[in-house]
Every structure is written in structure tokens, then in C-alpha cells.
Amino acid sequence: MTPEIMWKLLEIILIISLLIPIAATLVWVERRMIGIWQDRHGPNRVGPFGILQSLADLLKILGKEDWIPPFSDRLVFVLAPVIGAVCVLMSFAVIPFTADIGVSDLNIGLLFFLAMASLAVYSVVLAGWASNSKYALLGGMRAAAQTVSYEVFMGLSVMGVVLLTGTFNLRDIVLAQTDGWLIQSQFVGFSVFLIAGIAESHRLPFDLPEAETELTGGFHTEYSGLKFALFFLGEYLSVTLISAMSVVLFFGGWLMPAPLDTWLPPLVWFILKVLFFVFFFILLRTSLPRPRFDQLLAFGWQVMLPIALLNLLVTAALRLGGVL
Q1: CA-wise closest residue to 269 among 169, 167, 177
Q2: Which label site among 38, 126, 177, 293 has the fewest CB atoms less than 10 Å from its CB?
Q3: Quick check: keyword Cytoplasm in the entry (predicted)?
Q4: pLDDT of res. 212
């Protein structure tokens, strides 16, 4: 085995070993931030500032009975949460954390990310179908309609970035922002991408596939133990993934304008930018009400689609005219 392959394997193991604890930590961060936002304590019993609450929750959920309903399709029921977690983890393979840190430097990195986002919908659809439960099936159908719809707008929103940089390679897209971040010319595309990302990750206010007041728990109603933990892991990793992609595509990745670029290492700047968007995702949960499902789809097809197409058309015209 060559040193290069060994280094890549070490890089993969290191990134995965960091991502899973990050997802658990985000649970504590979310509860703590929402507590502050709503003028209450949040976790404050287990460990200093309740920081060990996530560990206690993890031990509890792993200690629960890993039950499989006798009326379910056993094989599909077990595979569904695995598919979701694997798709999200695979997406991190193309994220360039710095100029030198990143698992894969694919020429089609952006397309790979969109492909993994598309495959992740199979997880919730199969979970809803295999559970053989009305609530789970309704949640799975909602997830399919919501995810497939907003994938269209997500794909269109990043085409402006491709037009301006001339590449699908995420590292090259970051390097193309050396003279200025793409948020300056692609604010509309970024807005569409962020909204689509919220819908893709099933986060509030777009968590309709698992709306507790309507569907008990949606597609994961019948899940418990480790399999439920995999769904939980996938959701919080999706938040981190959308935040990282927003930074890479529109906010210069690890790059910072002078003299800020000399203040901290590139990896630290990248992490700080990602954390900003993660906090935005969390505080969004406390700020907006949940719409009806028909309103969500109508907003997508009647508002988001025309805006995404218009942004692409204007970007192409300005690019052709030499303005951008």
C-alpha cells in the first residue's frame, strides 16, 4: 500500500470519527441555544452546562430495545436508516476543507453531492413503506414529494456558480473566489439553495415528513434504538453538510480577504463559517411556524422555481455580455 493511499485512508477515518461526535454535540448546542433564545436554561444538569446530556441521551437510545415490528418488511426496514446515513457521509467525501484537506478532489464533486442528496430520499421512502404503518407511509410520501421537488430548485440554484467558475470541482470553485466571494453576484442563487437545503434536511419549519402534531413521528414512527439513532445522525449531519456546501459555493470556503487571512489558519476560518450557518439553522427552528404541506409545495413550484430559472437566465446573460 502506497503512502498516498494510507494517508487518504487515515483522512477518511479521521473525518468520519469527527463527524459523528459533531452530530451528537449539535444536539446539545441546539438545546442550549434554543433555551437561551426562549429565555430558559436548557440542559444544565448532566456535566458542566449540561454538556454531557448528549452522551446520556446516546447511552439511553443505544440501550433501548432495537425492536422490529412483526408486520414490517424486515430487510428493507433495517436497510432504510443505513442508506440515509451512508449517503450523507459519502457527500462529505467531496467537501474541500482546505486546499490540502479533503478526501476526494472529484472533477464532478458538485454533481456527486447532488446525486447523494437524491439517493438519500430512498431512505425515508423505504422507511415509510417498510414500516407498514399509515403514519409512517404518509411521512414517507411527504418526504418523497418534498425532497424531489426541492432538489430541482437546489440544482438550478448552483448552476449560476458553475456558469461563473466553469467547473463542477468544488476545490476549483473555492479557488475561483480568491478575488471575491460568489455571494456578491449569486445572492439570489444562495437564497434558493439555502431554502432548498432546509427542505432537503427536513429541518423546521420544513419538517413536515415527521410533523409530530400530525404524523406522530412520520417515517421513523416505528423505529427505535440504533436505527432511530441513524436517522437522528443523518439529520444533524445534513445540517452540517448544507452549511459546508453553502460556505464552499458562495462564501469562499477556507478563503478570507486580506488581512483576515493571516489571523487564523484556513481550516479554522472554514469551521467558523460552517458554525455560523449551523447556528442559523438552529435559530430558524425557534423563529418560524410550520406551513401546511400544500403551501410548502406551492411555494416551491410557484415561487422558488421561477426565481431559480430567472437567476440562471440573468447570470448567463451577464456572463455572455462580459459583465460577470
Answers
A1: 177
A2: 38
A3: no
A4: 63
Residues in the chain: 324
In which domain, by residue range, is 86 found?
Answer: 3-320
The DSSP secondary-structure symbol of 290 reads P
Separation between Cα atoms, residue 197 and residue 237, nearest integer Å: 12
Return left, alpha or beta for 293; rule: phi > 0 is left, psi -120 to 50 is alpha, else beta.
Answer: alpha
What is the residue-averaged pLDDT of the chain? 85
What is the spatial distance between Cα 309 and Cα 317, in angstroms, rounded to a whole number?
12
Residue 254: count of CB within 10 angstroms of its CB: 23
Q: Which of 22, 72, 94 is nearest to 239 (CA)?
A: 22
- Specify which of 6-15, 50-59, 157-166 reaches the highest per-range mean pLDDT: 157-166
User: What is the model's pTM?
Assistant: 0.90
Q: Let me know if 58 is exposed, middle or buried by CB neighbors in 10 A (0-12, 13-18, 19+).
A: middle
